[in-house]
Specification:
single chain; eight-stranded mixed β-sheet
Length: 195
């Protein structure tokens, strides 16, 4: 059975919206997209192992459509993130996507919690990795399907935007800190497992 690992880039005040670039997610007038930019080299340096360990990847539609044009075209075998993304099963949650146009991708629609439960039984031993995709992450949190959180806390306060942990939330559950590190640019990476 595979664990479900959620990777989220967060500000110190918990915002997860639009870390990658300007215009990534302008919902609700959010105009601060790209706030994680000063730490992109750290993302690549410290994120490679997690991607190499994955048995499969899960995306929301928006994140998938942002990632596909770049990562699907990277063929350098020394790029371990691209090698993992292009060689392992990918799943995208969408009720509107018909053709994902990225080899090895399956579109999930309908009862997402039930389908994710089935995927956890199907894959392994490495985790199923959900990167970004806060709407899908929230659905999985509410349905108590997340086994591991890897939270990348960036040294910035944004003051507003979508957060990973928004109500409604499931009843309290305890977490155990299993790894932590701080990069040279002050990015704190904390990995928590469910207890």
């Amino acid at each position: 059975m595979s664990a479900l690992l959620v990777i989220e880039y967060l500000s110190v005040d918990g915002v997860a919206q639009g870390p990658g670039h300007d215009g990534e997610d302008p919902d609700n007038g959010f105009a601060l997209g790209g706030w994680a930019g000063p730490h992109l080299q750290d993302h690549r340096e410290y994120g490679t192992v997690t991607y190499q360990d994955a048995s499969a990847f899960l995306f929301g539609r928006r994140t998938f459509e942002l990632w596909r044009p770049h990562w699907s075209q990277v063929s350098d075998p020394d790029d371990h993130i691209a090698a993992a993304l292009n060689s392992r099963p990918k799943y995208v949650v969408s009720t509107t996507m018909e053709e994902p146009a990225w080899s090895g991708t399956t579109v999930l629609a309908g009862d997402i919690p039930a389908q994710i439960g089935e995927l956890k039984l199907k894959h392994g031993p490495g985790p199923i990795v959900l990167a970004g995709s806060t709407q899908v992450a929230h659905t999985l949190i509410v349905n108590d399907l997340v086994d591991v959180y890897q939270l990348w806390i960036h040294p910035v306060v944004l003051g507003g935007g979508k957060r990973l942990f928004e109500p409604p939330l499931p009843p309290q559950h305890d977490l155990r800190l299993v790894t932590n590190c701080t990069t040279r640019t002050g990015l704190a990476i904390l990995t928590f497992e469910r207890t």
